[in-house]
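Example record

One chain of 58 residues, shown exactly as stored in the release files.
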Amino acid sequence: MLPFALITAIALIFIFENRASTEIRLLIPEVTMPLWGALLIAWALGMIACAFTLRRRR
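Predicted structure tokens for this chain:
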């Protein structure tokens, strides 16, 4: 459990340190948003995918 908490803390620090605005293209639409928002969304989707994977193994 400790490695998970450590990696999560480092990831969240990295996410919130990147505050610059950036353009993101998702197939057709192009949006401008803070980089931390995009990184946070990607991190959350990864956590959800991991939870589904671990749930299926049990």
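Notes: The mean pLDDT is 85.
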